[in-house]
Design brief:
The complex is a heterodimer of chains A (about 250) and B (about 325). With about 250 residues, chain A is mainly α. Chain A contains ten helices and no strands. Chain A has a single domain, classed as Orthogonal Bundle (MetI-like fold), CATH 1.10.3720.10. In chain A, about 80% of the residues lie in helices and about 0% in strands. Chain A starts with a helix and ends with a helix. Chain B folds into two domains: about 90 residues, no CATH class; about 210 residues, no CATH class. Classes of the chains: A mainly alpha (about 250), B alpha/beta (about 325).
Chain lengths: ~250, ~325
């Protein structure tokens, strides 16, 4: 099935490439494998180095985001009072796309050294924070009432309920949240890199290739790399999910 | 099996990441930003050096933010820099009118008696004070047409550096010579030159057309454009000029591509680069200046000391990028990001 899908996709690509400026798949594949280990002359870096740079930023920023979003979501989902205060505000901020934060980020982080880097990390943070928060929140809020009632009957204190019932029940939400958060973060970093100079990164690579001109194959090769990294990230996390929750 | 593939890819990525730190010693770290930001960033110590056009070099030097470690004269003596390009050379009247205004303005700038006025115009055009302008003008040679032999070096070096992705044949030319002849199209200039030689006060016929002209942000190299406007040379030939500002020459070529401008003042490197790579049809009908850029550093005292330092350029494919690459190669350094 997968082979058929791939063959169909490549066929479609050839058809489109025939009529437009889009480079043919074999040209892109050639460029892709060439640039994987050979530095590209303008920026002097290989595709892998660019991908690594982007990936590091995403991993760093989303780790920070998750370590704040997960506890916060469990707290808001479990405790109705906290939820009532926080959720409306979060729901209001959540629809603002990460990219809309860019100008503000530059202004806020202007006094810090390395404004661009910090802003990019902030944008990825915003991108991965909300999906994770919402996902965990949903699970934490929907802990079956019977469990909580039963725990109260046995005089369990809040800490114990949190540890033994709410957190385990939210585990699925946490794993999904991390997966989706990383995905959104990955999209945000590419866009953020396109806007300002970052020295390296796949978004920067694509944009520079466009500016220097005449490099469609490089651009598509960069896009392919973005897709591959995103896909790998997703499948690694799906695997981890199965490892953490073997009962599912 | 699939697990193995994933592991191998992850391992390769980590390996590439580690190698990068080892190799950075002999590399110059290049970042891009607008020249206006460079001065500020150098002052703050965010970057260690920059390569920019005047008056930003002089601004940094006069204010004591950095020192010149190499002028573009040191890197490539008498190098052509900014040029005047036009997108449609079939419109002869407009081209001749533009060249005439440009030549008049250039001669105005170069004649000693106008010094006071030139300083005033330069200050207005760039928004810098007198001290900076005086220093900056020292390093710029305003010319009417670039030296063709020298200009070809842009083409050769861009080709050698792997910047160019197409050959003249791909652009529909039979040979390189034919392509270069079309790129450096001096016929209009020669005509204007002849006519002015016969009669110094010759003015071409009024064309009564509107032209959209691109120029770069506060680039003192392009002073002739401002002078031609202020001295009314465009009016004399019936050109209604609509000026459009761009951040660097590569961006300005995008402007040509998207039909935003009909003519423009821009660097020779981006003009050549994008002419070839994106097949943006332009011809260079006049030159604007030679030299007039420099590498300014905060602490480094020589090119060699730029190893491992962060150096800003206005954009990849600009004249400044080009100069930095030549300088780095001379000093045995590599360009990285």
């Amino acid at each position: 099935m997968r082979l058929k899908s791939a063959a169909f996709f490549i066929f479609l690509w050839y058809v489109v490439a025939f009529f437009t400026e889009l480079p043919h798949p074999h040209e892109v594949a050639e460029k892709f494998f060439y640039l994987l280990f050979t530095p590209e002359p303008v920026l002097g870096k290989t595709l892998l180095e660019h991908a690594w740079a982007s990936l590091l930023r995403v991993i760093f920023a989303s780790s920070v985001a998750f370590s704040i979003a997960i506890p916060l979501a469990i707290l808001t989902g479990w405790n109705r009072n906290v939820g009532e205060i926080l959720m409306p505000a979060i729901e209001a901020i959540r629809p603002i796309p990460p990219l809309a934060w860019i100008p503000l980020a530059y202004i806020i982080f202007a006094p810090f050294p390395n404004t661009v880097q910090i802003s990019q990390i902030f944008i990825v943070f915003v991108g991965s924070f909300f999906p994770c928060l919402i996902s965990v929140f949903d699970y934490a809020r929907n802990v079956p009432e019977e469990f909580l009632e039963m725990a109260k009957v046995f005089r369990a204190n809040d800490l114990l309920i949190l540890k033994e019932i709410v957190v385990p029940h939210s585990l699925q939400g946490i794993m999904t949240g991390i997966r989706i958060g990383l995905g959104v973060g990955w999209m945000s970093i590419i866009a953020a890199e396109m806007i300002a100079t970052s020295g390296e990164g796949l978004g920067y690579f694509i944009m520079t290739m466009y500016q220097v001109g005449g490099r469609v194959a490089e651009i598509v090769a960069g896009m392919a790399m973005i897709g591959i990294v995103g896909y790998l990230m997703n499948s690694v996390l799906l695997r981890a999910e199965r490892l953490v929750m073997p009962w599912r | 099996m699939r697990r193995l593939i994933i592991l191998a890819v992850v391992f390769a990525i980590i390996l590439a990441g580690c190698q990068q730190t080892e190799m950075e010693k002999k590399k110059v770290k290049v970042v891009t930003m607008s020249p206006r930001d460079m001065v500020e960033q150098l002052k703050l110590g965010e970057i260690d050096a920059f390569v920019a056009w005047e008056p930003f070099v002089s601004e940094a030097v006069v204010n004591g933010f950095g020192k010149i470690i190499s002028t573009s004269h040191d890197i490539w003596p008498n190098h052509p820099c900014c040029v005047v390009a036009i997108s449609d050379k079939s419109n002869r009247d407009v081209a001749v009118a533009l060249v005439w205004a440009h030549v008049k303005a250039t001669r105005f700038i170069n004649s000693e008696e106008n010094r006071e006025k030139v300083l005033e115009y330069a200050s207005e055009f760039t928004g810098k004070d007198r001290e900076v302008i005086e220093e900056a003008l020292e390093r710029i040679r305003f010319v009417e047409y670039p030296d063709k032999e020298e200009f070809v070096k842009y083409y050769r070096e861009l080709e050698r550096g792997g910047y160019l992705t197409k050959k003249p044949r791909d652009l529909g030319y039979d040979s390189e010579d034919e392509f270069l002849k079309d790129l450096l199209y001096s016929e209009f200039y020669n005509y204007v030159l002849e006519r002015l030689k016969e009669n110094e006060n010759w003015v071409p016929e009024k064309v009564n057309k509107k032209v959209r002209v691109g120029y770069l942000t506060a680039d003192l190299h392009q002073l002739a454009f401002y002078v031609a406007m202020k001295e009314g040379y465009y009016e004399q030939v019936g050109l209604e000029v609509e000026a459009k500002e761009f951040a660097n020459g590569v961006m300005e070529m995008e402007g040509f591509k998207n039909g935003e401008i009909d003519a423009g003042y821009l660097g020779g490197a981006p003009a050549t680069l994008k002419r070839v790579n994106d097949d943006i049809s332009i011809s260079i009908i006049a030159g604007a200046n030679n030299e007039g850029s420099a590498i300014v550093a905060k602490d480094a005292k020589s090119l060699e000391e730029l190893a491992g330092k962060k150096v800003a350029i206005p954009g990849f494919g600009t004249v400044q990028d080009f100069l930095l690459r030549i300088a780095a190669e001379k000093a045995g350094l590599e360009i990285g990001t």
